[in-house]
Amino acid sequence: MKEILTASVEWTDKLHFWGKGEYGQTVSVDYSPPLGDGKGYGGLDLLLMGLVACGAQTAMSLFIKMKQDVTKFTVSATGKRTTEHPTVFTDIKMDFVVEGNGLSAELIEKAIRLSEEKYCPVWAMLKPSTKISYTVSVK
């Protein structure tokens, strides 16, 4: 695990940028019209996506360690934000849906709880300032 991560954005036009992380893949970053053209994700979109990705990756790594036969796994989130600037998230609701063969609901819920409490750095960074709740559905 790297101690220092880097990211950059390069401006193209209006409020559109190409973002790049450690491994060189790019992501289109833009602002909604009329200031931007909506050609990419905004900063809060990327933050919310980072939270669900982090929560999903840490939980999935634990599912594997717990020998859970997961065949489909999705995590979605809805974030409520303030209407005045800075328009920060005040509440985020995450939904974990896990499907598989012979899954233990107890182990699935334990893995997600560990993701929240110990392993997901994005979740840990957001928790002090944002109310984050979640549901778990095991099929």
State the name of the first-level CATH class of the largest domain: Alpha Beta
Order of helices and strands: EEEHEEHHE
Q: Percent of residues in beta strands?
A: 35-45%
Q: Which structural class fits the helix and strand makeup?
A: alpha+beta
User: What is the number of helices?
Assistant: 3
Count the E strands.
Answer: 6
**Spatial order of the strands forming the largest sheet:** 1-2-3
User: Unreliable stretches, pLDDT < 50, 5 or more residues?
Assistant: none
CATH third-tier fold name of the largest domain:
GMP Synthetase, Chain A, domain 3
CATH-wise, what's the superfamily of the largest domain?
K homology (KH) domain
Averaged pLDDT, please? 97
Gross morphology is: globular
The separation of the N and C termini measures 33 Å
How much helix, percentage-wise, in residues? 25-40%
Query: How does CATH name the architecture of the largest domain?
Result: 2-Layer Sandwich
What composes the largest sheet? 3 strands, antiparallel
Q: Give me the Rg, rounded.
A: 17 Å
Overall domain count? 2
